[in-house]
Design a protein that fits this description.
With 280 residues, the protein is α/β, with parallel strands linked by helices. The chain folds into 2 domains: 88 residues, 3-Layer(aba) Sandwich (Rossmann fold); 125 residues, Rossmann fold. Helix content is 40%, strand content 16%. The protein has 10 helices and 11 strands. Helix 2 links the parallel strand 2 and strand 3. The longest helix is centred in the N-terminal third of the chain and has 17 residues. Bound molecules: NADPH dihydro-nicotinamide-adenine-dinucleotide phosphate. The site of NADPH dihydro-nicotinamide-adenine-dinucleotide phosphate has 24 residues, from helix 10.
């Protein structure tokens, strides 16, 4: 069994971005907006700031208080849209429930939408006309390709249909000519097991610790665990690594799998939005 080492690959990606950024006169800038109140998000934005520093990118953090109004949030986004020094904008999710996530996301200028979440960019992704793709799904595809996992002609099963992970990764897999099945909470436990056991490539983004066990996995499958679940101060994936590792041919660890790649791909996307390059 091979461990898909996202951590090492992420370093490689960031080194590459750094060397490209060094050649630019004007350094690309990523602006992360965080609405205070979600402890995991606080960790993620610090990691993103660190990665910007590693890659020579400018990081501009906009911190808003928990009781920020929708209008204030949108004003902040509009200021960043108009700021010529900002090349990429990321609204750290989730935001408090009283705020309208879709409205806020769609205030981001599509040219600066670094996680490709605005409706116009999601539409481009849907029709295969996207310039960049959401960071986590991009990282997943890159990792599979890094380890020479054949995608074309394979059956990929994605568990979870979020706008951020499940749906876009399903689209990217389909763009790469996999046959894709997208499962969700209404799939039903027995049906889910039947489907996941057919998967050559199994991508899990559910948000439930150790949700996928040995009985969900086909012998020799490639398993990508997107989950980051904090339980008593420890981080667990959505896959029960210990039970699955003896069945699959490749698996991502948590931590050290998809997480670091998400951040590395955010750096890449920031670079791409600041330049007219198509890929890095
Ligand atoms: P969401 O909560 O937005 O989506 C979860 C999905 O799982 C939903 O589509 C839901 O279905 C589905 N689901 C829930 N229960 C079941 C079930 N019993 N059977 C099948 N499907 C089920 O989560 P995200 O996609 O945002 O995140 C998923 C996980 O990935 C989380 O742990 C998150 O922390 C992590 N994550 C990690 C990242 C990384 O960089 N590694 C980046 C982003 C997220 P339904 O739509 O029907 O409700």
């Amino acid at each position: 069994m091979i461990i898909l080492d996202g951590k090492t690959f992420a370093k490689e990606i960031k080194e590459n971005v750094k060397s490209k950024v060094e050649k630019l006169e004007k350094k690309p800038a990523l602006s992360c907006i965080i609405v205070e109140g979600d402890s995991a998000s606080e960790i993620y934005v610090v990691n993103k700031q660190k990665a910007c520093a590693e890659c020579g990118l400018i990081s501009k953090m906009i911190r808003l208080t928990h009781n920020v109004s929708q209008a204030e949030l949108e004003q902040n986004i509009e200021l960043l849209n108009a700021d010529e020094d900002v090349s990429a904008i990321l609204l750290q999710l989730p935001i408090p429930k009283n705020l309208d996530t879709d409205r806020a996301i769609n205030k981001i200028s599509p040219e600066k939408d670094v996680d490709c979440l605005t409706f116009s960019n999601a539409g481009r992704l849907f029709s295969g006309k996207n310039r960049i793709a959401p960071c986590t799904p991009t990282g997943i595809i890159k990792l599979l390709e890094k380890y020479n996992v054949q995608i074309a002609g394979k059956l990929a099963v994605v568990v979870g249909r979020s706008e951020l992970v499940g749906k876009p990764v399903a689209m990217l897999l389909e763009q790469k000519n996999a046959t894709v099945i997208l499962c969700h909470s209404k799939t039903g436990d027995e049906r889910l097991k039947e489907l996941t056991r057919m998967a050559d490539i199994l991508i899990v983004a559910v948000g439930k610790p150790k949700f996928i066990t040995a009985e969900h996995v086909k012998q020799g499958a490639v398993v990508v665990d997107v989950g980051i679940n904090r339980v008593d101060g420890k981080i667990y994936g959505d896959v029960d690594f210990e039970s699955v590792k003896n069945i699959c041919s490749m698996i991502t660890p948590v931590p050290g799998g998809v997480g670091p790649l998400t951040v590395a791909c955010l750096m890449e996307n920031t670079y791409l939005l600041a330049t007219d390059e198509k890929e890095i």
